[in-house]
Amino acid sequence: AAVGLIIPAAGMGERLGVGVPKALYTVGGQTLLGHALRSSVDSGVVSSVVIAAPVGLAGRVLDILQPPLPRTVNVQVVDGGRSRQESVRAALAVLPENLDVVLVHDAARCLTPAKMFVDIAHAVWSGHDAVVPGLPVVDTLKQVNGAGEVTGTPDRSVLRAVQTPQGFRRAVLERAHNAGAQNGSDATDDAGLVERMGSPVHVVPGDEEAFKVTRPLDLLLAEAVLARRRA
Ligand code: C5P
Fold first, then answer.
1. Is residue 30 part of a domain?
2. Measured from the CB, is residue 11 less than 6 Å from ligand 1?
3. Residue 34 CB–ligand 1 contact under 6 Å
4. 19 backbone dihedrals φ, ψ, rounded to 5°
5. Is residue 66 one of the residues assigned to a domain?
6. Cβ burial 121-148 (10 Å sphere, 16+ → b, else e)
C-alpha cells in the first residue's frame, strides 16, 4: 500500500525563541524541515509528502530544500492552521487519493532516523490501524491543580512519551480528524483523536534521536547529534 507523509511545520516555535518559524531555523547547515524531509524520503517508504507551512511562507519552503528531493517523491505545500490539529487537517485534505497509509511527522522531530518511518509503515501494513512510537518516561510525573498542589503521581511504568512519525490507515485518520473538528477537540497528537473515537492505538519502541526540538537546549543536543553523525 502506498504511503503518504504529512509534515506539520507551521508552528512559530515561541518556546525556542529564534525569531523565525521553528521549521525554517537552520541547524547543521539545513533547516529543521529539511532534515525531517531528508530522513523521511531516505526511508524509501514514502511516495508523496504534504507540508503544512507557516502561514504566508508556503511559497518559500521548497526553495530552501537543498539538495532537491528525488523526483520519485511528490511534494505539496499547504498553509498550516492555528493549531497543529488544523495544520494536519489542511494537509490531509490535499493528500493524493491513491494513498491508503498516512504517516504524520513533526518537522520539529527533525533528527528522527529513517528507519523509524520504515518501522511505523510496517506496523500499519501488518494490520494496526494506528501506530505511535513511544519511550519509557524518565521523570516522575505529578498531576497538579490550578493552585499548584499535587493531586496525584501516576505510575510511571505504564506511561510512554510518544513521538512521531505516527502511522495510520488513511480512513481511520480522516475519520478521527473529522470527528475532532466536529467536537472542537484540540489534540496535541493525531493518535489522541483516534483514541477519542474509541479505536485502538498500538505503541512500538521510539528512538531517543526522535526528540522534539522545542527549547534552546534542544538545539545544542541537535548540533551534537549531527556532529556525531558526521564524525
Ligand atoms: O509546538 P510543537 O513543537 O508541539 O509543534 C509540533 C509540530 O506541529 C511542529 O512541527 C510545528 O511546526 C507543528 N505545528 C503546526 N501548526 C501549528 C502549530 C504547530 O503545523 N499551528
1. yes
2. yes
3. no
4. 85, -10
5. yes
6. bebbeeebbbbbbbbeeeeeeeeeeeee
Tens of pLDDT along 215-225?
A: 999 999 999 99
What's at 156, amino acid-wise? R
For residue 90, the CA-to-ligand 1 centroid distance in Å is 13
Picking from 125, 75, 117, the residue whose alpha carbon sits closest to that of residue 100 is 125
CATH of the domain at 70: 3.90.550.10
84 touches ligand 1 (CB under 6 Å):
yes
Closest ligand 1 atom to Cα of 107: 10
Q: What is the pLDDT of residues 102-158, one digit of tens each?
A: 999 999 999 999 999 999 999 999 999 999 999 999 999 999 999 999 999 999 999
Residue 18, domain member (yes or no) = yes
State if residue 106 touches ligand 1 by the CB under 6 angstroms criterion. yes
Number of domains in the chain: 1
pLDDT score of 68 more than 90: no
CA-nearest residue for atom 4, ligand 1, is: 188
Expressed in angstroms and rounded, the spacing between residue 51 Cα and the centre of ligand 1 is 11
The interface pTM score, or ipTM, of the predicted complex is: 0.97
From the alpha carbon of 8, which atom of ligand 1 is closest?
20
